[in-house]
Amino acid sequence: MAIRPILRLGNPLLRQRSMEVYAVDTPDIRDLIADMFDTMEAADGAGLAAIQIGVPSRVMIFGFEANERYPEVEPIPITVLVNPKSNVLDDTKNGGWEGCLSVPGMRGYVERFSRIRYSGIDQYGNLVDREVDGFHARVFQHEFDHLEGVLYPDLIEDPLKFGLEEEL
Ligand code: NI
Fold first, then answer.
1. Domain count across the chain
2. How far apart are the CA of 100 and the centre of ligand 1, in A?
3. 74 is an active site residue
4. Which CATH number is 103's domain given?
């Protein structure tokens, strides 16, 4: 498959709401997911939403064994979620530094719910249903936001906690 260009902050496509997928067992969706993995791996990302390669469908991928961009975090299983849903299990939030392949070179400090349950279907049509916390919960919330047209800089409360990774 192919490494696709990643849309960057300022591109209006990133601001649209992605649409429900009605069938996962199609060549289009299979090719989309393969391209998303190629693109995410080439960029050493922790996750990617379809809209980041210009496809407004509710598909996200995430997960890694070890990640150079986030060397201090625990592994997350390699996951495909189509039409994901989630609910908050614990009202408390915690802060953490995030980056995004659509906001290259930058990091920002963002509050996220610490514990969530999410579900969706994978590329084979199987249900994925998990309760997660920590960085895993953060990654899900970040990718889910992409499906709603939200990018992490929108959520930064302290403008001093946003900048070029090399300067921070
Ligand atoms: Ni992102």
1. 1
2. 4
3. no
4. 3.90.45.10
How many angstroms is it from 143 CA to the middle of ligand 1?
Answer: 6
| Rg of the chain (C-alpha set) | 15
What are the backbone dihedrals phi and psi of residue 31, each rounded to the nearest 5 degrees, phi first? -65, -40
pLDDT digits (tens, 9 = 90+) for 127-148: 999 999 999 999 999 999 999 9
Q: Distance from the CA of 150 to the center of ligand 1, in angstroms?
A: 9
Please name the residues in contact with 3: beta carbons below 8 A apart, sequence gap of 6 or more: 35, 38, 39, 42
Q: What is the pLDDT of residues 65-121, one digit of tens each?
A: 888 877 888 899 999 999 999 999 999 999 999 999 999 999 999 999 999 999 999
pTM over 0.85: yes
Catalytic hit among 41, 65, 111, 143 = 143
